[in-house]
Amino acid sequence: MRFSIHIFFLIGFWSCFSQSNFPKSPLSYSKVKFVFEEKSNYYMDENGVFADTLLLSFDFPRIKYLKVKSPFRPNEICGFINYKDLIDKEDQRKLTSLIYHTTQTFDGVYDVETNKTIIKVTRIKGCEAFENTKKYLKADELPNFRYKIEIDYNTKKIKTIFPNTRRKESFEQNESEIFFNGDSTSGHYKKVTSTYTSTNLILLNANLSSKITPGILFSNNEFGVEKIMSLFDNYELKTVSYE
Q1: How confident is the prediction along the chain (243 residues), in pLDDT tens digits per residue?
Q2: Cα(124)–Cα(131) distance, integer angstroms
């Protein structure tokens, strides 16, 4: 069964999506270095698991959740699952895996001379999200994990290199089209997988090169990515520097 996931209700969150004061790209540089953080939209504390109600319904359709005030935005409602209702080991493993695969750092370098970007992606044990799975779900310690993304703007190929396998795609296979809100810095795009189609929000920054991306490619962006918000996770640009 395929699902269609729309997050237009999140448009109200654009207040949290205001552009940051990243410096304008210099007229001449040889490399641009950037760091993105990806964070899961699941949050855990001593009380239980918090997430958007649509996310909980999608990932855990058998578990009943309560509607409570968001721990981050008290004026908004989110879903909540008490740990006593998350007793199935398979559900615990699934939640741990979901958090593990959406808590990453993207450390990228775009080289002007080669016209290529190399992004080193890392998951580091000991971070708060991973420690919470140990503390509240009694999960095993989540291991460090590293892989690499290579974007070649000459051949228009993107390669993802994992420790034991690799995947190579054309830009055409990987790119999404942004539907802008009226300017060229904010809008949404669709992500299509084998099981669902989702609508994600994106914020670009007019001061940034279009080569600044966490490995997600777009067919019509003039500027670099600053933030991406999906139902499942968020990407945020943390630092940019030039050589």
Answers
A1: 545 555 544 444 444 555 567 888 888 999 999 999 999 999 999 999 999 999 999 999 999 999 999 888 778 899 999 999 998 999 999 999 999 999 999 999 999 999 999 999 999 988 999 999 999 998 898 999 999 999 999 999 999 999 999 999 999 999 999 999 888 999 999 988 778 888 999 999 999 999 999 999 999 999 999 999 999 999 999 999 999
A2: 11
- C-alpha 186/C-alpha 223 separation (Å) is 11
DSSP 8-state secondary structure symbol assigned to residue 190: E
Q: Which of 45, 93, 54, 51 is nearest to 70 (CA)?
A: 51
Q: What is the dihedral of CA 191, 196, 201, 207, to 10 degrees?
A: -20
How many helices and strands, by DSSP H and E, does the chain display? 4, 16
CA dist 131 and 99 (Å) reads: 11
Q: Is 28 helix (H, G, I), strand (E, B) or coil?
A: coil
Q: How many CB atoms lie within 10 A of CB 139?
A: 19
Tell me how crowded residue 70 is: count the other CB atoms within 10 A of its CB.
16
CA distances from residue 53 to 64, 67, 70 in whole angstroms, order as listed = 10, 8, 11
pTM of this prediction?
A: 0.92
Which residues does 110 contact at the CB level (< 8 Å), separation at least 6?
31, 32, 34, 116, 117, 209, 211, 212
Helices 128-137 & 89-100 angle (0-180, nearest 10): 170
Distances (CA, A) of 58 to 13, 51, 64, 97, 229: 21, 11, 12, 15, 17
